[in-house]
Amino acid sequence: MIIMGGGLLTDLYELNMAASYLRHGMTDRATFSLFVRKLPPDRGFLVVAGVADCLDFLTGFGFTGAELDYLERTRRYGRDVLDAFERIRFTGDVWAVPEGRVVFAGEPVLEVTAPIAEAQLVETVLLNHMTFQTSVATKAARCVLAAGGAQLVDFAFRRAQGIDAAMAVARASAIAGFAATSNVEAGRRYGLPVAGTMAHSFIEAFGDEEAAFAAFAADFPTGCTFLVDTYDTPGGVRAAIAVIRRMRLSERIGVRLDSGDLAELSRQTRRMLDDAGLHEVKIFASGGLDEYAIAELVRQGAPIDAYGVGTRMGVSADAPSLDSAYKLVACGERPVMKLSAGKVTAPGAKQVFRGPSGDVVSLRDEPSPPGHRPLLEPVMRAGRRPAAPEPIETMRERCAADIAALPAPARALRDPQPFEVRRSERLAELGNRVSAEIQAAHAGGPPSGLPSV
Amino acid sequence: MIIMGGGLLTDLYELNMAASYLRHGMTDRATFSLFVRKLPPDRGFLVVAGVADCLDFLTGFGFTGAELDYLERTRRYGRDVLDAFERIRFTGDVWAVPEGRVVFAGEPVLEVTAPIAEAQLVETVLLNHMTFQTSVATKAARCVLAAGGAQLVDFAFRRAQGIDAAMAVARASAIAGFAATSNVEAGRRYGLPVAGTMAHSFIEAFGDEEAAFAAFAADFPTGCTFLVDTYDTPGGVRAAIAVIRRMRLSERIGVRLDSGDLAELSRQTRRMLDDAGLHEVKIFASGGLDEYAIAELVRQGAPIDAYGVGTRMGVSADAPSLDSAYKLVACGERPVMKLSAGKVTAPGAKQVFRGPSGDVVSLRDEPSPPGHRPLLEPVMRAGRRPAAPEPIETMRERCAADIAALPAPARALRDPQPFEVRRSERLAELGNRVSAEIQAAHAGGPPSGLPSV
């Protein structure tokens, strides 16, 4: 969704720095590289997401009159700076790894080259979209891996971290392979399949499970799922069976288990349904699920056909953020890097080449090593998108193919081994040279680390 | 911010249930109670936040033409239901605990009484706002507790879970006692003080710390903070001292440490500044901080004047969601409850009374026990707010007073002991009676638990 303006969607220091660049006539094109420094525990890969929202933001980027009025009232900036802000648009180039692609720590996923003030001002929003959406797409892809072919539905809306977070979760989980979302607005906005069952309150409002199920089936004759755990699960299953038989329901009928020992209850429920001849009735499970809980249910052979996965996926509960960074790597013709303890960056605009035995992070203009293909693609030139946005289905297929191609240790849910990532010789040499130059220029002490990939 | 519409900001099952209620003529007023079932680990209290966004949503609630068109295209609902959706507004009453107030597990923080379809449709958004914003306000309050009087600045925008999450984080952390935010749009939207320093890229763009600091000080002569860890911290501090002396800077000047051993570096920096006679120059620390890291720095006596607290606060990293619920507790004149394993709810509209030795959860119409005061207040009647929105400053004072009044074990960062919460006799009796009635009505087996508070 393209919104014009958004210049205040940033940290104050970005505005301050941009003001300073503009006042000092610093209009050199700078390149910033967005990457994840380190994978969180129990992550063997990341699934890229968030690029489309970044491009929407950059397309509409600027300051509205109301935004400029606010800045004027703060008295922080002079007329010269406010005039410059009024004129500013994003005129830069962006390279990005397409959404759905699998990446690893230290690999640039998005690079911006633009006049330095523009590139600086957009940092906060680009980091926000890429960090959050990539962490959720990754979590969702792990759920898909764990489910071994069972269908997954996004149930995260109610406990996502905000309303637009819920939209991003629905989209990111669709990229990762979820079959549907419960989020109706996301269904509309992104064209996703929408699914839902019923809540305990529905049963309680009728006061009686059979009455509630019968009313619901009458209203939704082309498919419905009965929630059976409001009072006690076997009793709920009996009520569902009675209604299914009495109303001769046959199309897309299921029961949902939402509490208790799901492995045991699903077996018991399956037996009861099968004994009633209702082999086609599906079992749907939900309630505090994530990839670990799903993997355990699959391991126990629970006869569950589909899972509703909510909060823990939607906030990426065990890794709710990533150690992401958006770092200046070139300014004008000059490659730059920082040497802060534990946060050393590698200089220069980059490319990542994927080969059969691992990835190579290179300088942007290096040729592809034999048998490798580049991951970063130009997605914006001079502030314009060269191509129409990609459909989610394409991202979803890319994600499935990338994950299928991963070595098994990188796919493991616990203690995974990420795919190998090396630096090209030219990148390593440049890092060493720039680091040595900075050390020579600063008598203040040795730098605290060597450049990582 | 009131937006008209938003009827699709919901889970599909809410629409399905509402459609069914409407078709079956079920227009009884229902009461839903929103509460947190259990505190996350290391939480001795919660700070309520999110009520204002809930009321904004309810005020504008309805279906826009575009939303109805989408629903019509899904062919899920007949003309009768779409017409009913077109007319629907939120006409109910809301009671809530005011923002900034401290609450505990099992205490209703918001209760909605409305025709059941309306109350059902708004569940998803109400849970979303209250769950997320309460978890972040709580996390932020813990940072304030840990900082022992040092100032805190919200740096969470870049890795918050979405753009509106970042706005909510700035607001919630202000309620919890943060002094400022780096988030400029949140500053504008909520009238919050905005603060910021400079990034490593600024230093790198100039290529030289002294040149960068001098340029920045020339542009912001009424106050600036120099980032000193781009290459090595003592060298950066020396450069800052040189610029401060040469330019005779005196107003609101600071240095920011963003990496390395902050306790040791802050002591070293303080000595260097003091040796240069710059006693008034402040030390600002940032980089992966949360309440635990701040408490450790304070314990070590680190001479840090202010902290930038970002990602871990903004996503509430160790508890990124709460076990929140929005449960039907009364339907018409009938109190209701569910008995699902581990998720038993207590029936009836409620009030919470706070007394010197703990809280009492009661039925709404019970009198206050002596020396207690009610926490839930009417905040919306017949779909309208009786009063103007409260200023954040009022919420902030309430939060500070409530936390100061907590027993020390409830305030502990690790293994806290929450304040005592009891149920009134009348609530306990009602729970037992309704539970027994449900058990008598369901031959399917015993219920799996007793009602919790």
Automatic annotation (TrEMBL), chains A, B:
Residues 373-430 form the Nicotinate phosphoribosyltransferase C-terminal domain. InterPro entries: Aldolase_TIM, N/Namide_PRibTrfase, NAPRTase_C, NAPRTase_N, Nic_PRibTrfase-Fam, Nic_PRibTrfase_pncB, Nicotinate_pribotase-like_C. Pfam families: NAPRTase, NAPRTase_C, NAPRTase_N. It catalyses: 5-phospho-alpha-D-ribose 1-diphosphate + nicotinate + ATP + H2O = nicotinate beta-D-ribonucleotide + ADP + phosphate + diphosphate. SUPFAM superfamilies: Nicotinate/Quinolinate PRTase C-terminal domain-like, Nicotinate/Quinolinate PRTase N-terminal domain-like. Residues 151-319 form the Nicotinate/nicotinamide phosphoribosyltransferase domain. Keywords: Glycosyltransferase, Ligase, Phosphoprotein, Pyridine nucleotide biosynthesis, Transferase. Its EC number is 6.3.4.21. It comes from the Bacteria. One of its GO terms (molecular function) is glycosyltransferase activity. Catalyzes the first step in the biosynthesis of NAD from nicotinic acid, the ATP-dependent synthesis of beta-nicotinate D-ribonucleotide from nicotinate and 5-phospho-D-ribose 1-phosphate. Belongs to the NAPRTase family. This is Nicotinate phosphoribosyltransferase. It comes from Streptosporangium fragile. The lineage of its organism: Bacteria, Bacillati, Actinomycetota, Actinomycetes, Streptosporangiales.
